[in-house]
Design brief:
By secondary structure, the protein is mostly helical. The protein folds into two domains: about 10-45, no CATH class; about 50-195, no CATH class. The chain contains eleven helices and no strands.
Length: about 200
């Protein structure tokens, strides 16, 4: 018995298939976070309907979020000019974005978290708290367990209290049109997002 089709490209899975794919993709995504396909599969298989409905409602309650749901814009190397971004003044969102390896890490930039294990875990906890997605919380828990003792202590004593506060009070990141803020200073974008940098 398969679930109903949620969108055009959705492939409904039987509960057992969903469970097995969720476990397999989670194991792969946690051991190799660069596997975007497994991170996406983990998100698809572990996000339950109430969580997805909550995300949709939060986006619909935000004027930009509503527009993003209607337009479904994609940020990729085909839709932005990385050369132009790299020539923007230092400190702008676009300049920071041009210096990152991945094209999806706006949360890393806004939270000023490196793409090392501690930064990844910190961002996963932020996303888990703000979005309510089980895969993010799971990634934070298992990623945190893989940290060295010194980094784990920093996560528990410094980063987690800060990130819990930021995720709770910040503007909903999924309802933010990042591509329209490339020329702004990162500090101004953080103010717009209601993010206090980690001191």
């Amino acid at each position: 018995m398969s679930a109903k089709k949620l969108y055009d490209a959705h492939v409904p899975l039987a509960p057992l298939s969903r469970l097995l794919l969720g476990i397999g993709s989670a194991a792969t995504a946690i051991t190799d976070p660069r596997r975007g396909d497994m991170v996406a599969a983990m998100g698809e298989t572990t996000a339950i309907t109430p969580v997805l409905e909550n995300i949709r409602k939060r986006m619909e309650s935000d004027i930009v979020g509503r527009r993003l749901l209607l337009e479904k814009p994609r940020i990729s190397n085909e839709t932005i000019d990385r050369k132009w971004l790299s020539q923007l003044p230092s400190g702008t969102l676009g300049k920071h974005y041009s210096e990152y390896r991945e094209t999806h890490d706006f949360a890393h930039i806004a939270l000023e978290q490196k793409t090392n294990m501690l930064g990844e875990v910190t961002v996963k906890y932020f996303e888990g708290i703000q979005y309510g997605l089980p895969m993010c919380v799971t990634g934070g828990i298992f990623g945190g367990a893989r940290l060295l003792t010194k980094n784990r202590q920093e996560l528990l004593e410094r980063n987690l209290p800060w990130v819990a506060e930021q995720a709770s009070k910040a503007r909903f990141f999924m309802a933010f049109d990042w591509e329209n803020h490339f020329e702004k200073q990162l500090s101004d974008v953080q103010k717009e997002l209601n993010i206090d940098p980690l001191i």
